[in-house]
Design goal:
Elements: E1 10-14, H1 18-28, E2 33-37, H2 40-49, E3 54-58, H3 66-74, E4 84-88, H4 93-101, E5 106-109, H5 114-169, H6 177-192, H7 204-213, H8 226-229, H9 237-243, H10 246-261, H11 266-277, H12 298-313, H13 324-333, H14 341-349, H15 351-360, H16 365-378
Parallel strand pairs: 1-2, 1-3, 3-4, 4-5
Helix pairs in contact: 2-3, 6-7, 6-12, 6-14, 6-15, 7-11, 10-11, 11-12, 12-13
Amino acid sequence: MELFRASKPTVLVVDDTPSNLALVAELLKNSYTVKAVTNGVKALALAEVEPPDLILLDVVMPEIDGYEVCRLLKAKPGTRQIPIIFLTSSGEVEDEQLGLALGAVDYITRPINPPILLSRVRAHVADAAYAKTMRVNNEYLEFEVTKRTRELAALQDVTILALASLAEKRDADTGNHLRRTQHYMRALSKHLRLNSRFTEFLTDETVELLFKCAPLHDIGKVGIPDRILLKPGRYEPEEFEIMKTHPKLGRDALLHAGATSGAMLDFLEIAKDIVYSHHEKWDGSGYPLGLIGEAIPIPARLMALADVYDALISPRVYKASMSHAQAAEIIIQGKGTHFDPDIVDAFHCVANEFQAITTRFNDTQDELETKAHYLELAL
């Protein structure tokens, strides 16, 4: 007993002469499911509702001829992949060239030679089936690649947030600092795309990576002793020298992660620049390397301004918070000394956006008290 029989491929035959339809249907019936219509309008409607595996199409027909039917079929996404073979009594080369130019796969002249018709139909149905299988496989692969890419992006985001949170939990001053600074970075970088110095670097992908990597800027602080990191006041000179090692500690951790993975991924490269160089200053007076001007990586230059601005508007045990206007004035005074002049100009243009970000992610009293309690327990 036969449990399964594969369905026959479907061939749509379009011809305004009933005898021609009958002849072709008789030749194909043993191997194919044959559907026959007598004009182009019916052919277009049927092909759109039930796309066949192949169309045998007469050229000379009333209402619309075969060439126009072919053109309309090839113009629609749902029917453009159907192979079309023209059947015609004309043997003119120009007619054949026109049919092929419109997208037909073959051109058969009458009187029909049955073996030739069957051979060509069989070949083109097989080709179409293979092409369809390839399209389905490619669509599946694209779906899987897209899915995997999303999964990797989500894993990357989780990894970044986990690392950043680790540093945040050990720093009593952070509050919503990480959220604010990443939004400052996005505001600055989007505006700087209009500047020819930054256009090439600040692609859509890079702007997004800057936003994601900004919270990592102080991950090196996990290597700073609690007696210094959690000190409720200003550092002594020797303590500050220890604190100044946190960029290298963070950079080394990211380098190790890159080496372990076998590649320095784009987000690790940007994160490394931010972590290691965000305390550098435009005039060379920063740390850890004393880099000057353009030698400071762009991500670090952006982070430097975002980090300083947020430090100014945030309260500390050794200072009160500044107003936006006061912080903005200090940033502007640092143009060409602490900060890249063009980045300061960008800040001036998006200063209102900075202020809105500060308001949106303002530290609540509960958050500040929780941090203070953690500090007391740690000490």
